[in-house]
Each structure stands twice: as C-alpha cells, then as structure tokens.
Design a protein that fits this description.
- The two termini are about 50 Å apart.
- Helices cover about 40% and strands about 15% of the residues.
- The protein contains 23 helices and 19 strands.
- The structure holds thiamine diphosphate (TPP) and magnesium ion.
- Thiamine diphosphate binds next to helix 16 and helix 18.
C-alpha cells in the first residue's frame, strides 16, 4: 500500500541528496526503513527532534548540500522550528519530511494527530503534501514531488522545504528492491549558481555539442517577455529549430520559416505525429494553450525535454522534463548562440535538421493559407472570421487583450500573428474575471487597444467599464453566444442539467451597458459588416463596444468543419516524409 514511498525516497538519491537524519516514531516507519534500506544515504538517528534538526543544519553547512529530516506525526515536528528558522534566515537547504495520519483520521480524536499542514508557514521555501497517487501516476508522481522539494531547497535563496507525508497501515514497508527503481526517468537540475559564466560555461558548450544535427523543437509558451521573443527566434535560426509559438508568447509576430502557429489544427491528425517527433524539446515560458500540442509533447517521450525558466518552479504538467535549467531566457539563448560550437553547427547544419523543419513549415503555411482563404467568406457571424479580420485591420503598434475561455482558443487557431501587434492575456490562472479592467489598464499606455471577449467574461467584469475615460482608445469585440460556449467542446456537453449548470444563458441586452457607461455601441447583424465597424472604432478615442452575435452550437460546428483537414492523410504523410 505504501509502495510509492520507495520511488519517493529513491528520487532524492538520484538528485544527489546523500544525508538523512531521523528521529524515532511509528508513523514515520515507512520512510525511516526505506531511507535506510535504500543504501544510497548516510543516515543518522537522533532521538531529540530539536537536536536532530540542528544536526541536519550542520551537515548541510559542512557538505554544502541539502539534508533530509524525517520525524513522526504530532508534536515531533514542532521541535524542528528553531533550526528551520535558522536555515531559512541563513539560506541552508533542509528537506523536512513529516509523517502524518491519513485524512480519514484527521480531526476526529485520533492519537498523536495535529494539523500539520503548512505548520512552518513562511519559514520554508516550499510546502506540499504527498497525496496518495492516482492510478497511472503511482510511481512517477512521488518522484515529481521529490524533484520540486529539491529544486525549491536549492533555489537562488536556498532554504528549508516541507513535505507532509500521510502514511497508512501497514506502516512497515516491503523491502523490495524493484520498488526503488519504479517510475524512474532521468531528470537533471541546472542551477543558475552552477553556471560560472553563461557565455563560456562547460555545460552550455556540452549542450551545443549535444544539439548538433538534432531535430530541435522549441516551445515558446505564454509568459515569455516581449524582449525575449527575438532571442528565442535567433536561437531557433542558429539551431535550425522549429518553434511552436503560442499566441501569448508574441513570437508569432516575428514570423519567418520555422515559426509555427497552426499546430493546434494539424496535430489533430495523430497519423502525422510520428513524422514530427523531435530529438530535443526546449520549452520557454509556460504551458501552451493548445491541449492537443501538450498531448503531442507528451507523446514525444523519447525526446530530451529541456525547460529553461528563471525560477526553480517545476513547469510541465505532464511531468516529462529531463533537464530544468534555471536561467533567464535571454541569457540562455545568448550563451548558446555565442557558443562557438553552435556557430559551427549552423554552418554544418545537415539535411535531417532541415527536412524536419520543412515538414512542420509545409503543414503550417498550408493550413494557414487555407484558413485565411476560406474563412474570409464565411457568411455567418463566427469567431474565427472576426479574428482573421481583426488581424487584417488592427492598427500597427496596437495591442490586443484576449479573454480566457473560447476567445483564447479561437485565437490560438486563427491568429497567424504576423505584424506589429502585441497580444496579452491573463494566463497565470486562466480566470474569466477582471478581463475588461485589465484591458482598460493596458490601454493606459496610450496605444490603440482591442479586447476580444466572450459574453460571460464581459459580464463578470462589467463594472470595470466605470473606469472608462475619453483619453483611451479601446475597442471591445464582444462575441455574444449567450453563455459559456466552451462547454460545447467539453465532456459536460449533453449531460443532465447542461443548460442550468454549464451553458448558463443570461439573455442580456448589452446595449444597456454601453448606455450606462457612456461607450459607443454597435451590434453586427451580418459577418460582412464587422470590418467596417471595427475600422471605425479603432480609429477614434473612447471605449467602443462591437457586439458580434454568435451561436454556441453553430460556432463549434464551423470550427470543427474548418479545421477538419479532409483530404487524403496518407498521401500528405507520404509527401512530407520525403522532405
Ligand atoms: C473567475 C472564473 N470563474 C469561472 C471560470 C470557469 N469558466 C471557464 S470558461 C467559462 C465560460 C465563459 O464564457 P464566455 O466568457 O461567454 O466565453 P465563451 O466560452 O462563450 O466563448 C467559465 C464560467 C473561470 N475560468 N474563472
Ligand atoms: Mg459566451
């Protein structure tokens, strides 16, 4: 039952942790026995938890390495507090593993049971509870938790981390060697502090050699800063890499060969996946909006998966990172570009690299031409057509705020992004709240601003319009499908109570909001009327609302139809295979 603790223990060893200090107890039996049985740790038994923690602190200082602490449930962990405070304020990495009763025994009078959640508060760099793993993640999930613990203990500001570990009876584990091996995949942490100089570091040089002649797929996700996009593109050119560019990465705007934007459409065809598999993935920024692209990356589990991020946050929900490099995007790209080996690599770039890039490029440019060409003639009001027209008529140097839900997903498909336009969204936590206010905030820099939003996101933040004033230039394109269109695409579709619980139609007349907040307002009745209204709105100051009535079901059918890729897929496969 506690078999998943063995890979948890093993992962610390794999990440280079060598020392563990225990204090005795029953609930911690599983961990204490497995750390001892593993054979890779130097272990110590210290009866007094207060002393144990200070001793661990000393070991960590002496070896300049993180040290594990293990104690039982109840008041035992409270004795760690003074040493944890010292570790936090002096920057010493301690990994505190507190055994706990399972949830079924919490707050019901079970002995030696207290609320252990976040008991150390702000005194630790990181807290997490090791939950019982879901099926399919039984051995891999505990390894991920161990990785996060080590990464956060070794952050720029080193310090203690706390993982609470509920354990179940029988507490005595099977001492089965194979459990230690279970779920293992290679994972390496490269800390900023380990790189002596970004430009001539041995690690960067080795990496350049490793990338030589390889099919490299760069993932430019949301939260890549505007000034970092150019560095990513230059690196892509140096490596002959293909770049999957999320609309919020603002890399699409730099569009040249190898910058791919229509992947959400053609990756629908799983038959193509094997032809698009890279040798190496380099991820910048956060997770791509396209779920399909995420699934494709997950499928590429033979590839080296490098994440470059300025923090020690583990950013990869499918958990297949093989190397996490803590670095600013610009510093990493510049180092690799400047690296002499990389320069050689460009000169010697071979056929494998380019034929890989051309496969992606051929699919991408083909799909983009098809979508732009056909959707321009779509007679009904459809989000895809609006986005393509906004792309055509956006003022140069303008900025576009895109709401969550279907707005960002349609954008992902239909926005080719080329041109001097900057895209923003609230993709930190993906809320449909605060959308109007964020757009009004953006517009304060004086640039012409456009917001594309669904009706519920608009409704949620209607009173944001109270901050409207004559000096900003904001055009709000409101796709009103009366409720949450996103649920048409989700498994909730067709379930009982669908309309009441998910679709949530409001039946509101938004012209009233325009009157209330003194905005200009126009409702489009025919798709052909949008361009004119849009061009007029963006040309003048103030807040302009253009309401585009759409139909949830019809839009979902149109979207499916336009992105269906009918045609002989085997023939297409055969064609790009020859590149
Ligand atoms: C603050 C917040 N509440 C609830 C949600 C869950 N949610 C995600 S999409 C959505 C529906 C949004 O509908 P709308 O803005 O009209 O966009 P559409 O899908 O129709 O394009 C809801 C309620 C959320 N993301 N954020
Ligand atoms: Mg809606």
């Amino acid at each position: 039952m506690n078999e998943y603790i063995a890979p948890f223990v093993d992962e610390f060893y794999r990440l280079g942790v060598k020392y563990a200090v225990f204090s005795p107890g029953s609930r911690s039996t599983t961990m204490a026995m497995l750390f001892t049985e593993h054979g890779g740790f130097q272990t110590y038994m210290n009866i007094d938890e207060r002393s144990a923690a200070f001793m661990a602190l000393g070991i960590a200082k002496g070896h300049d390495e993180p040290v594990i602490l293990v104690c039982t449930s109840g008041s035992a962990m409270a004795h760690y507090v003074p040493a944890i405070l010292e570790a936090q304020y002096s920057g010493v990495p301690l990994i505190v593993l507190t055994a706990d009763r399972p949830h079924t025994l919490q707050s019901m009078g079970a002995p030696q049971t207290i609320d252990q959640q976040k008991l150390f508060g702000h005194a630790v760099n990181y807290y997490e509870e090791l939950a019982v793993p879901q099926e399919g993640h039984y051995y891999t999930y505990p390894r991920l938790v161990a990785r996060k613990a080590v990464m956060k203990a070794l952050d720029d500001k080193r310090g203690p981390v706390h993982i609470n570990v509920p354990l179940f009876e029988p507490l005595v584990p099977e001492l089965e060697r194979s459990h230690f091996e279970a779920g293992y995949t290679p994972f390496k942490i490269v800390r900023r502090g380990d790189l002596q100089s970004y430009f001539d570091d041995v690690f960067i040089q080795d990496l350049a050699v490793k990338l030589r002649g390889k099919r490299v797929l760069i993932v430019a996700g949301p939260q890549v800063r505007l000034d970092e996009g150019a560095a990513i593109v230059t690196l892509g050119e140096a490596l002959g890499a293909t770049i999957l560019s999320d609309p919020l990465s603002n890399v699409r705007r730099l569009g040249t060969t190898g910058i791919i934007s229509a992947y959400d459409v053609f990756l629908k065809k799983k038959e193509l996946w094997s032809l698009l598999e890279p040798d190496v993935i380099i991820q910048f920024g956060h997770v791509l909006i396209s779920k399909r692209a995420q699934q494709f990356l997950n499928y590429c589990n033979n590839a080296e998966y490098i994440v470059v991020h300025p923090t020690m946050d583990y950013i990869n929900p499918v958990g297949i990172t093989t190397i996490h490099i803590q670095s600013s995007i610009s510093a990493f790209c510049r180092s690799l570009i400047n690296c002499s080996t990389t320069v050689m690599h460009v000169k010697e770039n071979n056929g494998v690299v380019y034929s890989y890039l051309h496969r992606w490029d051929y699919l991408d440019k083909g799909i983009r031409t098809l979508l732009n060409g056909t959707i321009a003639y779509e007679p009904s009001c459809f989000e895809g057509r609006t986005i393509i027209e906004i792309q055509r008529f956006m003022p140069k140097g303008g900025q576009l705020m895109i709401a969550n839900s279907m707005s960002i997903r349609y954008m992902d498909c239909y926005w080719s992004g080329i041109g001097d336009i900057f895209v923003y969204g609230n993709r930190g936590v993906n809320g449909i709240d605060g959308t109007v206010s964020t757009a009004i905030g953006l517009a304060q820099n004086g640039k012409p601003t456009v917001l594309i939003t669904g009706d519920l996101a608009f409704f949620h933040d209607l009173n944001g319009l109270a901050m409207a004033n004559e000096n900003i230039n904001l055009t709000i394109v409101l796709h009103n499908n009366d409720g949450g269109g996103i649920f048409e695409y989700l498994p909730q579709k067709e379930v009982k109570y669908f309309d009441y619980l998910f679709s949530t139609e409001q039946g509101l007349d938004y012209s009233g909001a325009a009157t209330l907040y003194k905005c200009s307002y126009e409702r489009i009745e025919k798709a052909d009327d949008f361009a004119k209204a849009f061009k007029t709105a963006v040309a003048s100051k103030g807040i302009h609302i253009i309401e585009v009535p759409t139909d949830k079901e019809r839009s979902s059918q149109l979207h499916d139809a336009y992105t269906a890729l009918n045609g002989d897929i085997e023939e297409l496969k055969g064609y790009i295979e020859q590149f």
